[in-house]
Amino acid sequence: MTDQPTRWTSATVHPDMWVDPDDDPRDSDGPSPDGELATLQDFLTNYRLTLRMKCEGLTPEQLARRSVPPSTMSLLGLLRHLAEVERDWRNWITDDDPLPPLYDADDGDFRGAVADQAVVDAAYEALAREQAATDAALAEHQDLGRRLGRDGTAVRELLVHRIEEYARHCGHADLLRERVDGRVGQ
């Protein structure tokens, strides 16, 4: 007997995929987006959806499981962390006073990720709210070369950095999910 979950996937066409291509909401049958802004937004949307897919179907206990001790990282912690990061990116694009953090300082987004349905629900709500607010703030700036905020960060850099953040954490989510219940895939 072992604590190691058996590797599995719901895909039947390609065993290294998360789901079959026909069931993958990230894939479209149409042409790729036209233009740099639309392409960046499409990548961001798909990485956000990937993170949600990696978390779906799990209990609060599974979402909160710290899968790689001594790390405090968990899937629930990633949801909370990305809500915090989305909020902080809005601080980059304004000259106003910074928004206060959502969670406690000292890694609170990971340590506060406890196995409680209310915490899970709040994490999903916070992530959706913060994503929408950051999207709305950036939608006012269609010129990717425009520099914003105290540091003069280009809109393009903000979009690419957001994609990078989600892509990196989707890699973490792959490993965390596999450790939780053995599910693998792209």
Structural features, described:
With 186 residues, this protein is mainly alpha-helical. The chain has a domain at 36-42 and 61-181: Four Helix Bundle (Hemerythrin (Met), subunit A) (Up-down Bundle). The protein is built from 6 helices and 2 strands. It has a two-stranded antiparallel ribbon with strand order 1-2. Strand 1 and strand 2 form a beta hairpin. The model has no long low-confidence stretch (mean pLDDT 90). Residues 1-12 have a biased composition (Polar residues). It holds the Pfam family MST. Residues 1-38 are annotated as: Disordered. It comes from Streptomyces chisholmiae. This is DinB family protein.
Protein topology:
Layout: H1 36-55, H2 60-64, H3 75-92, H4 108-111, H5 117-139, E1 147-148, E2 153-154, H6 155-181
Antiparallel strand pairs: 1-2
Helix pairs in contact: 1-6, 3-5, 3-6
Short description:
This protein is an all-alpha fold and 186 residues long.
Can you tag this structure with a few keywords?
186 residues; two-stranded antiparallel ribbon; 2 strands; MST-like; DinB family protein; DinB/YfiT-like
Output the radius of gyration.
Answer: 18 Å
Order of helices and strands: HHHHHEEH
So how many helices? 6
The number of strands is: 2
Query: What portion of the residues fall into strands of 2 or more residues?
Result: under 5%
